[in-house]
Design brief:
Elements: E1 6-9, E2 11-13, H1 21-24, H2 44-47, E3 64-66, H3 79-86, E4 91-94, H4 99-107, E5 111-114, H5 117-126, E6 132-135, E7 140-142, E8 148-150, H6 155-163, H7 167-173, H8 175-188, H9 190-202
Parallel strand pairs: 2-3, 3-4, 4-5
Antiparallel strand pairs: 1-6, 6-7, 7-8
């Protein structure tokens, strides 16, 4: 997972409410065994509509999505976060998120920013023609017009995002401590290692 401190650039000014994970990535895309390419299926039903925002050249490659209330509701499929990441979205701003989606977004390096509806409405207007910046250092969303909207985030999630640590990375970061524990365990309970070797030999 890549470290994220600032996400800045064009934003999709969508604002749609109650977008469930089936809209984010339809069920027939879940057959894939890899995350790569899921961006092609992201918002497939929306993209089927002429003039949709996701195929508008003005927002091509936008790293930020501005959505409405209850974004990511529905099923718990992590593919929704995978699809967003694959299409290049690094941050989603909304008045509220499904808890499961918020967790999946965090695990995949996507910054989920909760702001009051009034702030989101302002960003939807600004994003039509101007960039938006999400800054984890200052915990704020800003615009070129001196708008500054502070947001909150669990400190642990913020640290993981800024250091690029997913669950595997967190484990590897504690490699020395794990090694010391295992050494102490084998010294204090040597029979454990013996049983482990015996099981390996039998296999």
């Amino acid at each position: 997972m890549n470290p994220v401190t600032t996400v800045s650039g064009t934003a999709y000014p969508w604002g749609a409410k109650n977008i469930d994970t089936d809209v984010i990535i339809p069920a027939h895309w879940l057959k894939t065994i890899t995350r790569a390419g899921l961006g092609r299926g992201a918002f497939e039903t929306v993209r089927a509509q002429p003039g949709n925002i996701f195929d508008d050249p003005a927002y091509a490659g936008a790293p930020i999505l501005i959505a409405g209330d209850n974004f990511g509701c529905g099923s718990s499929r992590e593919h929704a976060a995978w699809a967003l990441a694959d299409m290049g979205i690094q941050a989603v701003i909304a008045p509220s998120f499904s808890d499961i989606f918020s967790g999946n977004a965090f695990k995949n390096g996507i910054v989920a920013v909760v702001l009051p509806k009034e702030a989101v409405d302002r960003l939807l207007e600004v994003a039509k023609d101007h960039p938006v910046t999400v800054d984890l250092e200052t915990m704020s969303v800003t615009t070129p017009f001196q708008d500054r909207f502070p947001f909150e985030m669990d400190p642990f999630r913020r640290e993981c995002l800024m250091k690029g640590l997913d669950e595997v990375g967190l484990t590897l970061a504690r490699d020395e401590a794990i090694g010391r524990f295992e050494t102490q365990m084998m010294q204090g309970r040597p029979w454990i290692e013996g049983r482990a070797r015996l099981a390996t030999a039998d296999a």
